Amino acid sequence: MGDTMRFIAHGSLLLLDGDMLGPRAIEHGGRTLYRFMDYLYVPVPPADMDPHLVQEVCELRLSERARVLDRRIHARVQAAMIKVVRECGLAPGNVLDFGTGTGESAETLRTELTPRVAGCDMSWASLAAARPRNAVTVAPHGPLPFASGTFDLVHALFVMHFKIPAPMLTELHRCTASGGGHLVANCYGDSIEPYRERMRAANWGLAMSVPVTGVAGHVIDLWERVRRVERPHCRVDQIAGTKSAGDGGSRMDVERAVPNCDAKPVTESEGRSRIDCSTPE
Ligand SMILES: C[S@@+](CC[C@H](N)C(=O)[O-])C[C@H]1O[C@@H](n2cnc3c(N)ncnc32)[C@H](O)[C@@H]1O
Fold this sequence. Notes:
Rossmann fold; alpha/beta; binds S-adenosylmethionine; seven-stranded mixed sheet; globular; 2 domains
């Protein structure tokens, strides 16, 4: 550890004191710790953090947010996500803010997209600290306390770079409207490809992806809910008409599953606008 660096212990984490950017990894107490979010050091490579560690990190981020959170980047990324939703012609009636934390992102969605926003998060401490409107605590693997097809859009801001458990991604899929539901998320750096793999495995199809202007290495992905596909990475002409027994998918489902295919975004479908997405009692 360098002479001029000072660390403050928080459970299994270390917080670098001061404004200096530390090295990618440090040795401390006979263990290797890895840098995450500039000032935090975690006991496993960030891509391998389990939900308990993610929760510890997020709660430390919350208590130290004045220092560790770059609000300019945060606001710019959320604005880019909303722009993608608008420019794709989506007009979501009901939105779920997955990993809502203190709920600030949900408030922005209420102002910018729709008043009908519900939030959920596995961190009771985050929800208790800020008491965001219409938000529930959930277990990291789910289930989610919402009826199938409730949401037109799932919004996940600074969440998907964590290793979200597969059953939770499937739950998000279930709670999204079957005729045109979407998920919009940001991600960055080395976490992009592993997260995309997890999303595809949970039957989300990447409809489009854009870089965030002015925030290096950051992307906004718009995902479409797809039903079931055998081989999501094949070209459409390779798998069209190859529906296997029990697949239940149609050619349209297959097209939607192909990353970067020319799938047309679907606007708010009729009949869902009266569904109340408020938190169940
Ligand atoms: C970095 S914070 C972002 C909070 C908020 N979206 C924002 O941008 O300010 C990530 C949030 O995702 C939540 N989270 C991470 N994994 C989760 C999971 N499997 N289920 C539910 N919430 C999760 C964390 O508890 C944390 O509050």
